[in-house]
Amino acid sequence: MHRSLLSAITLILVSYGISLPVAAESLEKRVMQVAEELRCLVCQNQTIADSQADLAIDLKNQVREKLAQGMTEKEVISFMVQRYGDFVLYRPPVKSTTWVLWFGPFFLLLSGFIFLFIKLRQRQSSIEILSAAEIARAAELLAEKSSLKEFQ
Amino acid sequence: MKRFLLPLGIFLIVLFFLGAGLRLNPREIPSPFIGKAAPPFTLTQLEEAKNNFSPQDMHGKVWLLNVWASWCAACREEHPVLLDFAKRGAVPIVGLDYKDERQSGNKWLAQFGNPYQLSVFDSDGRVGIDYGVYGVPETFVIDKQGVIRMKHVGPVTPAVIKEKLLPLIEELNRA
ipTM value of the model? Predict the structure, then answer.
């Protein structure tokens, strides 16, 4: 009985001791996860996770604070979108204004294939098959040429 | 001849898009605040730390919120233009001293002149984030109802004042 109580207490103490850094670590992980989704507005080709710009650091702090307050990742991201617009999203959302961006390349690829297909079909049909008489004439000409060669 | 038309056409289209791309300014990000209420805040004034200011105080007036800082080089460039504009008295300008030291901010105003009706002091840049500020200087036009009507990123130039700010301010004042 004593023993189990003691071990329970140790367990509680140990779990407290360990759980604090673990919580901090998992919070940091979540901060980085959100930070990878957000574009740095100063150095626009970086996420705020990658950037060391002042604003990126401020925004990371803001993300950390909001997550610690119990906001979900989604809520933090929409908090940023409210302030900085869709531009802050490193992965642009699919909506009517970004259709060209998302589907344009596939459209170009598809039209390239269609163009290629049509061209190849045209080329194939333009190859004329020789008639028997023409083949005979061709053979005759070739034979003439090779016999000429013998004289040289 | 005809076989060159298609590549030429494609070339011209690409040329058009590249040309248009060159003219775009990637630093100008459309603000999601246009047409929305200016985010509320209460900050101390730069000159008098005892006094507070909040956008509510400007209710019923068309005003400008100009984000600046003593460390910001482009603000120096913009400053004489703002001073000149303030002299004309077309619109009250409130400054937001962004991520600055109180002392350096005040020194800067004493040295270069003060175009602001008052400045508020945002030492940790939190209000800046609430307004989506990403590059100082930035200027917001806020109407009588406290709705943000325009945002200009970068230094305000005489051309910006004449072509964008003044017409909008006149229109908002009439409303």
Answer: 0.75
